[in-house]
Amino acid sequence: MAERPVAGSGQPDILTRKSDHLTIITDGRGRQQSRTTGFEAVHFVHNALPDLDFAAIDTATSLFGRRLAAPLLVSAMTGGPPEAQAINAAIAEACQALRLPLAVGSQRIALEGRGDAGLRGLRRCAPDVPILANLGAVQLNCDMGIDDCRRAVDMLQADALILHLNPLQEAIQPAGDRNFAGLLDRIAAVCSALPVPVGVKEVGAGLSAQTGLRLIEAGARLIDVAGLGGTSWARVEGERGDQALRDLAAPFADWGIPTAQAVADMAAALQPGVTLVASGGVRDGLDVARAIRLGADLAGQAAGALPAACAGVEALCAHLEQVIAQLRIAMFCTGSADLAALRQAPLLPPLEIKPGGA
Questions:
Q1: Which of 214, 245, 318, 336 is the most exposed place for a label (fewest CB within 10 A)?
Q2: Start and end of every FMN-dependent dehydrogenase domain (predicted)?
Q3: 133 and 140 in contact (C-beta within 8 Å)?
């Protein structure tokens, strides 16, 4: 399916594409189906005598100098299409109410002056919580530079800028931006020039520890593995096209590093002072607990929170409160008074069932 061009430019209509993405994900047509996050293989040892007062369990943490009520990030979902304005506002208001950080989707549309979907007003809605700006890293090889990165941060009065990496999506997307050559040096230049921390994330295929370490050496202060098991952008792009595009995308629907594996590998190699985020198929508070136990500082949820965000502030608050309540239950039943204790909670070894009960 060819994309509709922007009038007078000959370029694909990014507004149409972003609107299609929202529709496909909201409809559930972009979910990973054949492989999982790997979190289901992580089992805590149940503590039947936790010696804790449930009410005293502390889920608090911090990000970029701001105190958070829980290690839960409402991750990047929406950038600049018009229908995203209400979603962005609901996310900001819910995160302010619950003291949680939020990350916006790509700000490319807003920087190009084709609509900001209320992005410029988010800091008024969320004055006290971290807001993470977002641009596609590959745009640094196209028509955007350090000044655009500064503009993205200033637009939100953001605490950090996240550059997202999406080679699989760009390779499948008609007219995708596929020149990733020399991109690490450009990311390093942004890290050096910006007055706020710079983070890097994948979008659903995972970041390996090797790649993560290269990014940290380049100056990244946050790594979001965004692994396999949630939204498949190969499927999303395939859903936007004709049968030929769906056939092109089909073998890559399960491509990537499962989120749990990516988190564990990255945590083992992590350097001090770098925030590790586990996103990609985080379903509930138990997955948040598993992510923290594997070494993440925060867990991010995007598609899992999108239906509630579309329904408004009250629905999103209720959803996020349930996720946090599930995290607290996992902490209670592992005898973990705080997140530091949860990181040391014992895990069951893999279950081995021998034939014949031997």
A1: 318
A2: 33-107, 184-345
A3: no
Tell whether 62 is in a known binding site.
no
18 annotated as a binding-site residue: yes
DSSP state of 338: S
Q: Is residue 309 in a domain?
A: yes
Q: Judge whether 5 lies within some domain.
A: no
Domain count, the chain: 1
Q: Which tokens sit at 241? A: 């096209």
pTM of the predicted model, to two decimals?
A: 0.90
Assign residue 150 the CATH number of its domain.
3.20.20.70
Is 76 annotated as belonging to a binding site? yes
**What's the whole-number average pLDDT of the chain?**
90
Q: State mean pLDDT over 77-88.
A: 77
Looking at residue 221, its amino acid is: R
The SS3 call for residue 39 is helix
2 confidence band (pLDDT: 50, 70, 90): very low
Domain assignment of residue 9, yes or no: no
Pairing of strands 72-74, 298-301: parallel
Q: Is 302 annotated as a binding residue?
A: yes
Q: What is the extent of the structural domain holding 199?
A: 19-350
Contact 133, 162 (CB under 8 A): yes
pLDDT value of residue 11: 42
Is residue 224 assigned to a domain? yes
Task: State yes or no: 170 annotated in a binding site.
Answer: yes
Cβ-in-10-Å burial (0-12, 13-18, 19+) of 332 comes to middle
- For 159-173, the pLDDT digits (tens) are 999 999 999 999 999
Q: Which residue has the tokens 């490319």?
A: 108
Q: Tell me: the pLDDT tens digits for 144-201? A: 999 999 999 999 999 999 999 999 999 999 989 999 999 999 999 999 999 999 999 9
321-340 per-position pLDDT tens digit? 999 999 999 999 999 999 99
Helix (H, G, I), strand (E, B) or coil at 228: strand
Q: Judge whether 308 is annotated as a binding position.
A: no
Q: Is 2 annotated as a binding residue?
A: no
Read off the tokens for 195.
């007055």
Max Cα separation, the chain?
74
Residue 61 annotated as part of some ligand binding site: no
Is residue 189 within 8 A of residue 182, CB to CB? The reply is no
**Whole-number pLDDT of residue 117:** 76
Q: Is 282 annotated for ligand binding? A: yes
Q: Is 354 annotated as a binding residue?
A: no
